[in-house]
Every structure is written in structure tokens, then in C-alpha cells.
Amino acid sequence: MKVVLENLTKKFPSRTKGGSDVIAVNDFNFEIPDGQLIGLLGPSGCGKSTCLNLLSGLQTPTSGKIYFGDDDVTNLPPENRGVGLVFQNYALYPHLTVKQNIMFPLQNLKGADKLSKPEMEEKALEAAKLVQIDGLMDRKPSELSGGQQQRVAIARALVKMPRLLLLDEPLSNLDARLRLQTREEIRRIQNETNITTVFVTHDQEEAMSISDMIVVMKDGVLQQIGKPQDVYDSPVNLFVAKFLGTPPINVFVGRVEGEKVWIGDEAVAEAKGVSDQPVYIGIRPEGFELSKEGTLTCNLSRVEVMGRDISVISTHKDAETEAIRSIIDADNLESIVGATVKFEIKPHKILIFNKETEERIYIGE
Ligand code: ADP
Ligand code: MG
Q1: For atom 22 of ligand 1, which residue has the closest CA?
Q2: Could you tell me the distance, in angstroms and rounded to a whole number, from the CA of residue 30 to the centre of ligand 2?
Q3: Taking the CB of the first residue and of the last residue of the chain, which one, N or C, has fewer CB atoms within 10 A?
Q4: For residues 350 and 269, is the Cβ–Cβ distance under 8 A?
Q5: pLDDT of residue 8
């Protein structure tokens, strides 16, 4: 089922007297295609949970509409929306077994939807198999690891076969290894069930790795929506450029002059068609190449060997960040000698942003 957000806005009254309202979700317009997994991504407080709560019906919008398929569900209560919810804290009932926890949503079904006990047990088992915890049905939550508890929560959200699955930072309470494993698991389950899914996270790597599309937000405002790779390659502004990528993008203060990009007194790239102006220059770590004739000269701090690649850490007086991180092919290790390094910049890895608006005005070709 596709989901459409139309002029969706949620304001909260200020918590301090005389302060201005908080616009947690500011005029969202986008469509979530049927059967896709969308990552809602942004720093803490940017409105991700509010957006999810509007989709689930736990909160009502200040204005705007939500459509599930062609149905306007804006005023439909949560229990009639057919959504499955998973939160960061698994929120399982501690006194119930895994099986009882998963069956719980089925027990409130009324009228024609009412199920017999064997029917409920069968559906619970199906959901448990999907998340691979069918061997743990008689345990209590306290007898499970964090990862297993979160699987139970996912099974519980799936047991009614929701039209929309909503996950709010579902991996945040898990340790690093489990986080990785569980996110792959979520992707697998989503692929198998094909349920349209919205996955909220502040972790860009997590969002990039499992989403069909990511929605990047800041202060309640949608910044960019697109395929993870496209957003990474062509961020619309400096915020998005900085938010995506590890190691992060390297940012320099410089200028465009005579259709060339200048960092200090070095012209590092072409900028065809861009008028003379002060700019921010963003270069991804993989955008540098070591070269004796390189156009950008940096002060070498150290070299970190990572096996296949090496990471050259350097500094430059016009860099915004303290350390410039570049990822270089390990074969080039010998060419690093002396106190300075010279880089050639791969043209398509250079991003130019207006100094004032911080909007992207140029990508190299
Ligand atoms: P996120 O999930 O991205 O961390 P939230 O959606 O929880 O962000 O919050 C977005 C903004 O709305 C924050 O500034 C937060 O303080 C504010 N906010 C959220 N819920 C409420 C509420 N019930 N009352 C007032 N302000 C709220
Ligand atoms: Mg949140």
C-alpha cells in the first residue's frame, strides 16, 4: 500500500511562556511507494518520531492529510489504520510468554475478525517463524537477549499483517553486533512480506544500508528525499552533505573565481558556469588522489592503514574540520614522503555550496 503525506504539519505549543511554537513536522509532501522501505533520517529532535506518530494515528496533525492508498486516514483512530508499531524499548509484557506477547494484538479483535485460540496460535507461530524465534515461544521476555526481545516486538507488530509497518529507532538499544544483524533481519522480513515500511533512525549508516529511499530531515523541515546513493552523491545542501557518510565529507572555505574552485591560492577544480563568489567546498574522503602534481597541498598528520585502503589524515588552514580524512588505495603508500601531501581532486567528487544559503550550486563532472 502506498502512503501519501499532503501538507502534513504538526505544531506543539511552546513549553516556555511566551516562546514560539515548535513546528515538529513542517509541511511534508511526499509519497511512500507501495512495498518500499523508507528511512526517516535526521538528528535528534528533528521530528522523526512525530512524523511516525502522525502516520500511526497516535498524534493528530495540526493541518494536512494522510492517505493510505486512496483512503484519507487523517481522522482514523490508530486501531483502525492497520499499522504495526515497533519502538526502541521493546515494550513487551514482562509477565506474558513470547507466544502470549505475540498473540496479544489478536485478542482484541471483535465481531467478524474474532479468532479462535488455535487460529491465534497459528498466526503467532507464523509471525514467530518470520523473525526466527519460534523456538522460544514459552520463554518470558526476561529470559531473552535484547535482540531476541526486539524480534518478539517485531513479530507482535506483524501478527495482524499490517498495511504499514512503523519502526522508531528499533535498533538503538542493541549492541553494535546485534544492531547490524537485526537490521539485516528487518530488511529480509520486509523483502519477504513486502509490507510498506517506515524506519526511523538518527544513524545515517543504518538508514543508508537498508532503505530503498531515505528522507533527510532537519528542524521539522524535509531536506531531501531519494535513493541513498543519489542523496549521498548529490546532496542538495551542506547539511545533507555533512550528515551522510563516514568518514564525513571534508569541508573547505574557498571561492569560485574565473570558473575555477580556489582553496587558498590553489585552483583545485573547474566550476563551469559558476559566477565568482565565496563558497564552501565539500570533498568526500574517496575524492582525493595522491599525486606529485596534485593541486591541493595539505600538511600531513598521519597515515592509518586499514588493509585494502589507507586513510591519510592531514590539515589545511582553510579546512572547516580539524582533520582532513582521505581514503587512498594502499598501493600508493610509498608516495607519501615529507611533511606535506599533494592531492588531485576527482572532479565528480567535488561539491560546491553557496556560502550564505549553504545550498549546493555545483557538482563536478
Ligand atoms: P525526533 O524523533 O526526531 O528526535 P521528535 O519528533 O520527538 O524528534 O520531536 C520533534 C520536536 O518536537 C522536538 O523539538 C520536540 O521537543 C518537540 N516535541 C515532540 N513532542 C512534543 C510534545 N508532546 N509537546 C511539545 N513538544 C514536543
Ligand atoms: Mg524520536
Answers
A1: 12
A2: 20
A3: C
A4: yes
A5: 98
**Separation between Cα atoms, residue 190 and residue 71, nearest integer Å:** 23
Whether ligand 1 lies within 6 angstroms of the CB of 50 is answered as yes
- Pair 64, 184: CB distance under 8 Å: no
Q: What is the pLDDT of residues 206-226, one digit of tens each?
A: 999 999 999 999 999 999 999
Q: pLDDT tens for residues 270-279?
A: 999 999 999 9
Q: Which residue has the higher pLDDT, 337 or 359?
A: 359
pLDDT band at 250; cut points 50, 70, 90: very high
**Contact predicate 161/192, CB 8 Å:** no
The three cell numbers of residue 104 are 496479544
State the Cα–Cα distance between residues 41 and 73, nearest whole angstrom: 24
Amino acid at 58: L
Site to probe by mutation for ligand 1, drawn from 50, 204, 217 as the one with most ligand atoms within 8 Å of Cβ, is 50
Q: What's the CA gap between 271 and 262, in Å, rounded? A: 10
| H or E segment and range at residue 231 | helix 228-233
Which stretch of 99-108, 284-293, 302-311 has the lowest confidence by average pLDDT? 302-311
In the structure grid, which three cell numbers stand for residue 359, read together?
Answer: 545550498
Q: Which residue's entry shows cell 585502503?
A: 309
Answer whether 283's CB lies under 8 Å from 242's CB.
no
pTM value > 0.90: yes
